[in-house]
Write a structure and sequence with these properties.
heterodimer; A: 319 residues; alpha/beta; 2 domains; 12 helices; 11 strands; globular; B: mainly alpha; MetI-like fold
């Protein structure tokens, strides 16, 4: 059953168009990784699905976002609010700044179940304490009464996850959930998310810039570059046989064990800013196999197929 | 915890007041001129002057004079006004209620209206509402109080005759002074509120509150405003002292009694005990204001409470 279907999504903020041509599908119980460098449009994709673009002065310019058969673009704010937090949960990047510092953490989690499940104060509290326990937080009943500044980053991220799960959602969107955490805690949180998807039969959009996280947890992956999607497919396929030169280069950036002879590969150049997107294929200035056609024509990114690569030389690159 | 913190801060007032009393005493006594100039009759001999100076103890060393004054204060005696020939405590007791009345009302008025205007400006971003409040803030922070006071007297008192021109007979005499002092306060509070709301609004946790499906009013009243109140409380606390003593020009223009008027008059006559007494009272008001502000902040923000443990 298709949980989320994004077709040719484009976002505009005032006169600029920082995101276009994003398409993917996500089934129930699946995890899709959205990877790319910072500035590639991963977070905008998340904000677009959540209907939160107006907060940063943006809007969905074209394309469709269908969640469990409901078309989200053009949904009224009131209808959207029922889905947000209720059926779609968001996990943000920086747990340090994601909780209201003036309020105890328990009531902040309660708010979700009280709003969406209509629980009373006592019911919401019981639910929160149970949820914190499920997330392997020690002594949830006393943690309930702490303020955010009294907790570690990893604990705070669990609280944020608890808020996202507060009303038993069907879809979670995690925007770089581990970037701001210590490496040891990162692994715990990623494992926790993977387990939650299995136990609760959720769908998860996992936004990250870490290819190794994708390899460990995701079923499928969409690679983004400079505000557009460049490749999409099942994780195993993408790693075994990347068709887009950018994906290939990204995979080349993952360290493999300890080796003195192999230097870690980087990618020459930097991601262009929104105002300087190149003509044609946006990756061509950094691409090793670019030809004249790449500077003129925008490569097609198939919306429906399981596997897609927006490259004029997709097949050649694969060899 | 807050109680212990409050008591600690309250006790701190004693040493700070002592330090302030030294500064006040020195500044007042080192000013050129003395109260004898105002007392002595024309044609008096230098001997008369020496006698008069001795009578008020002004011939003693500054050191002795200070200790006499401060030891009197310790027993609650503010001394005798030299030129006005009355106990300083009486003069202050007579004038303080007027200052408290005007200051308290202006304070309430400017806090409430300023807060509302700041929220309106924030909620109406990029519309004429925001432009209106921004214009008002600019006007309110630049227009001098005495000029506004004169304008108000001309319009509402002289032309329309709604309120008395001056004095402090009944509540109608309070309206124009409160409006005048409130005007600047509103601008200040509105500006701080608006900026604080804009800053907090950009925080990640606000995005997450939207992602939880909370409505805009809930987010505004439960989360944004409590944060915006923190800096507002700070500036309001600093303003308590200013309003009590600094609203001198407004008191003057409206011919109102008050601590500010008393101070200005006594300063002109170099009436040392009165100047020292009223300055000490104002300093105390500033300290108490700051203290209330700090306690309010600790009550509102768990991070500050933690730091004061």
């Amino acid at each position: 059953m298709t949980m989320l279907s994004v077709q040719d999504l484009g976002v505009s903020i005032g006169p600029i168009a920082p995101l276009s041509g994003v398409s993917f599908q996500l089934e129930r119980g699946e995890i899709i990784g959205i990877v790319g460098e910072s500035g590639s449009g991963k977070s905008l994709t998340a904000m677009g699905i959540m209907g939160l673009l107006p907060l940063i002065g943006g809007q969905i310019d074209h394309g469709t976002v269908e969640f469990d058969g409901i078309e989200l673009t053009g949904l009224s704010e009131n209808e959207y609010r029922k889905l947000r937090g209720g059926r779609i949960g968001l996990i943000t990047q920086n747990p340090m700044t994601s909780l209201d510092p003036l309020k105890k953490i328990g009531p902040q989690v309660d708010a979700v179940s009280r709003l969406h499940l209509g629980l009373d104060r006592a019911g919401a509290k019981a639910r929160t304490v149970e949820l914190l326990g499920d997330l392997r937080i020690p002594e949830p009943a006393s943690i309930y009464h702490l303020y955010p500044h009294q907790m570690s980053g990893g604990m705070k991220q669990r609280i944020v996850i608890a808020m996202a799960l507060g009303a038993d959602p069907d879809l979670l969107i995690a925007d770089e959930p581990t970037t701001a955490l210590d490496v040891t805690v990162q692994a715990q949180i990623i494992r926790l998310l993977g387990d939650l998807v299995k136990q609760r039969d959720l769908s998860l959009v996992l936004i990250t810039h870490d290819m190794s996280v994708v390899a460990q947890t995701c079923d499928k992956v969409m690679v983004m570059y400079a505000g557009t999607a460049v490749e999409r497919g099942p994780v195993q396929d993408i790693f075994d046989n990347p068709k887009h030169p950018y994906t290939k280069a990204l995979i080349g950036c993952i360290p493999h064990g300890l080796s003195e002879t192999v230097r870690l590969k980087g990618i020459e150049g930097t991601v262009p800013g929104v105002a300087q997107y190149p003509s044609g294929c946006r990756f061509h200035p950094r691409c090793t196999i670019a030809e004249e056609v790449c500077t003129r024509n925008v490569p097609v990114f198939e919306t429906g197929a399981k596997r897609a690569a927006a490259c004029h030389f997709a097949l050649e690159a694969a060899q | 915890m807050i109680l212990k913190y409050s008591i600690q801060r309250l006790l701190m007032i004693i040493p700070v007041s002592l330090a302030i009393s030294v500064v006040i005493f020195l500044i007042v006594h080192l000013l050129p001129g003395d109260p004898i100039d105002n007392l002595i009759r024309v044609g008096s001999s230098p001997e008369d002057r020496i006698a008069l100076t001795a009578k008020y103890g002004l011939d003693q060393s500054l050191f002795e004079q200070y200790f006499l004054w401060i030891s009197q204060i310790m027993t609650g005696d503010f001394g005798q006004a030299i030129v006005l020939r009355r106990p300083v405590a009486d003069l202050i007791a007579q004038n303080l209620p007027y200052s408290l009345q005007l200051g308290g009302l202006a304070f309430l008025f400017s806090s409430i209206v300023g807060l509302i205007l700041g929220i309106v400006a924030w909620a109406s971003q990029k519309t004429w509402g925001e432009q209106f409040v921004k214009g008002f803030i600019l006007l309110g922070s630049t227009v001098p109080g005495f000029w506004l006071a004169l304008l108000m007297i001309l319009f509402f008192a002289v032309n329309l005759g709604w309120f008395p021109v001056s004095g402090a007979r009944d509540w109608t005499a309070l309206v124009l002074p409160v409006l005048t002092i409130g005007f600047g306060g509103i601008a200040l509070v509105a500006r701080v509120t608006r900026v604080a709301l804009l800053e907090v609004g950009r925080e990640d946790f606000i995005t997450l509150l939207h992602a939880k499906g909370l409505s805009r009013p809930t987010i505004l009243f439960r989360h944004l405003i409590p944060h915006a109140l923190l800096p507002v409380v700070t500036i309001l606390a600093l303003r308590i002292g200013w309003i009590l003593g600094g609203a001198v020009t407004v008191e003057f223009v409206f011919g109102r009694p008050g601590l500010g008027s008393l101070l200005i008059r006594a300063l002109g006559q170099r009436d040392y005990p009165v100047v020292q007494g009223s300055l000490l009272m104002l300093a105390l008001a500033v300290m108490i204001g700051t203290l209330i502000g700090d306690i309010a902040q600790a009550a509102m923000d768990p991070r500050i409470r933690e730091a004061t443990k």
